[in-house]
Design brief:
With about 230 residues, the chain is mainly alpha-helical. Helix content is about 70%, strand content about 0%. It contains nine helices and no strands. It is globular.
């Protein structure tokens, strides 16, 4: 009975995934489609990433900056590389764009279908790992809202393009939040250990300023994407 119940739950989740991806992925105008193609491109957000790193380092001592760089490296190691190289091939769940049950019913932009496996989503894990880490560091509603909005947009883009099921996104986002918390606690631990031997400001003093440059870069990038979409 337990086995049958488990199978029923798995089937229900699978069917829900098929229904939701079919609703989210739809034939859209060229401008709308290209907006999300550009949004999902990691290079689009390089300026925001550079500004975010600058904000994280600008008030740090060199030792504090080193701890932060190591923490950010750990964040992306866990949220991107480990998921891509370990979880995805181990679980081996096909993307909707490669799943025979649904792939022929979906729309694709410029023939883009992504790699073979998609569970969990790297875009979701990366986005929510960064959002969680920055929200915990700054403790400011403005930066939390900005980074969560950015991460949600990235998640939607992957489903709209037909390369991730909703459960790929959900699990990726949950893993990203967990990784963000783990790395934040690791950063605090490493910073405290260094601060025992060398005079360093409290983390609250470093991140007490509003991270307006990150928010401004996010909004400016959105405006540029909206302006560029009709011309694509």
């Amino acid at each position: 009975m337990a086995y049958e119940t488990q199978n029923t739950l798995v089937d229900w989740v699978r069917e829900a995934d098929y229904s939701l991806i079919s609703a989210i992925n739809f034939p859209a105008s060229d401008a709308y489609s290209h907006f999300w193609v550009d949004y999902t491109d990691k290079f689009t957000w390089m300026p925001m990433a550079i500004v975010a790193v600058w904000c994280l380092l600008r008030h740090n001592t060199w030792r504090g900056a080193l701890v932060m760089v190591l923490s950010v490296a750990l964040l992306f190691l866990l949220s991107d590389f480990v998921i891509a190289s370990t979880l995805k091939p181990w679980i081996a769940r096909l993307r909707p764009s490669h799943d025979p049950a649904v792939m022929d019913m979906l729309s694709y932009v410029n023939g883009y279908r992504g790699g073979r496996y998609g569970f969990p989503s790297n875009h979701a894990s990366n986005g929510f790992a960064v959002a969680t880490f920055l929200a915990l560091l700054y403790r400011k509603p403005c930066i939390a809202a900005c980074t969560v909005a950015w991460a949600c947009g990235s998640c939607y883009s992957r489903m709209f393009l037909g390369v991730h099921f909703p459960t790929d996104i959900l699990v990726g986002a949950l893993l990203g939040c967990l990784i963000g918390v783990i790395v934040y606690r690791t950063y605090n631990y490493m910073y405290a250990r260094v601060a025992l031997r060398h005079p360093m400001p409290e983390p609250q003093e470093i991140y007490d300023s509003e991270p307006w440059p990150v928010i401004a870069t996010f909004l400016l990038t959105l405006v540029l994407l909206l302006l560029a979409a009709p011309c694509a």
